User: What shape does this take?
Amino acid sequence: MRPQKKLAIALLTLGIASAYPASAHAADKQTKRAAPTVAEAEQFLKNAEARLEKLSDTAQRAAWVYETNITDDTETISAQANELALTAAGEIALEARRYNGLPLSADNKRKLKLLQLSLAISDPKDRETYTRLAASMSGDYGKAKYCRKAGDPTSCLDLGQMEKIMAESRDPALLKEVWLGWHQQSVKYKDNYVKYVTVSNKGAREMGFADTGAMWRSQYDMPADAFAADTERLWQQVKPLYDSLHMYVRLKLRQQYGKDVVPKEGPIPAHLFGNMWSQSWENLYPIVKPQTQTASIDVADALKSKNIDAKGMTQFGEKFYTSLGMEKLPESFWQKSLFTKPRDREVVCHASAWDLNNLTDVRIKMCITPTAEDFMTIHHELGHIYYDLAYRKQPFLFKGGANDGFHEAIGDTVALSVTPEYLNKLGLLKEVPDASQDIGVLLDRALQKVAFLPFGYMVDQWRWKVYSGQAKPADYDKVWWELREKYQGVKRPAPMEANGFDAGAKYHVAADVAYSRYFIAHILQFQFHRALCREAGYVGPLNRCSIYENKKAGEKYQAMLSMGASRPWNEALKAVTGEDQMDATAILDYFAPLKVWMDAQNKEMSKE
Ligand code: X8Z
Ligand code: ZN
Assistant: This one.
């Protein structure tokens, strides 16, 4: 399942096939079917949308019940509902080929194309295996616990508890223990993952893709290879900024943990970054902040002292969106969402946004705690929700993001406007730090956003290799750590286990959610932010801009959101930014003053 539950696209990635020849013309000749007409194609699309919409509704509901209450029964029901949806999506994907090349409207041509970007698993047994394994792996991930003392259930920690330790503890031995404890859990579903990859690839090949990775890369209105080249271009653009941050953090970590724990050169042990996957480092802020930094920028204290609960935090999020002129969240959102971790049952805590009936039954599922990190994630999830709401009047196949990276960037863009000044307005920050404190604020942001870039890039570098067969199961960990060292500059805190599965300790691998979306979202959100600030008439450093209460910027944003997936993403990007390519100059501009400062610090500290 996907963190962003837009089944229009999820269905498209779950096609099935029959023994239908690759060429529609050949098929029609063999079966002596008359060549299809435009009218038939239009009728086909209408029927397909109606059928998929209904099945998507059922599968979404089954998935919601499963992920908010993991049991054997809910797992089976969810897998079965997905199987039905997958069967229909496959039949439709294959039938769609008949209509390729007809002189259809631009919209209908696009719908036909979207329908064919899918897996085709023709064998019903394989189909069952695929949906069963998918459900079982996300359940295994959700339920996994590490027990500090074997045989003692009171010593067991769930992921949320372990993440808290990773964020707060400065004891390298404890951090290492917890890191290793969590990374042991995924070994249990490695065999299932290997089987799953095989079936998924079979499905991709039946639809004419080289493998599932190639299919994923084909979802961006350009050839698969062009997408790979484009993301590499972006990575090269941002790499110098990441390198400066990595070096700065290394020097600070050496001061904190000593030279024996943190090497002078080469990759840094992965358990020291305040995060289970070393994917964002904001929890290191207290260790790495500039010495001159006196102002607090952490909202956690205010949230706790003012007793703002999970719903209250979410209401703050909603308030930002309505200040842009967007609608209030429907009453059902407040009644039906899951805001905190229930005590009486197992759930998938990884935050997600849901659109159950493709209209207004929107919900979030999140185990919210009163931290700055979760406050930001709420804005992220609400971005998905407001996108869903904005495109609800589109036909079913266009109810999706311009691409999946757009979906991930919407809420993050809004969160970039959650500045200290804005937090102060809300009463969540006592004082507005003056300009002399900007470096600290920027550094905090860089620990979230810049630190993430190589992780966002490498997860699918690994998966592309797995799906193409270049990384064999016996080498999963070897390849995973080669990539983590190469891109992130982090290393495993202990030697690799025989037959380990460290990649599976990441939600999106266990749940098979493509990850490049987050990499491009981290580039796009700065492009959106820069453009919306311009629209709001703002001039000045980008990190000080907040579009809060700016209806003009809100209207511009909303216009893009309501396009959904109806046009190629370049057009959606142009509607907001005037640019038609992804471009890292916005993120580089945003952090430019910090880069200068870090480089000077690095020079200074390296002398010591
Ligand atoms: O999975 C998410 C969101 C849900 S779409 C919470 N994110 C990625 C992650 O946690 O790994 C947001 C940033 C990256
Ligand atoms: Zn998301």
About this structure: Confidence is low (pLDDT under 50) at residues 1-26. The first helix runs from residue 7 to 12. Residues 3-4, 351-352, 377, 380, 518 surround L-captopril (ligand 1) (CB under 6 Å). Residues 8-140 form one domain.
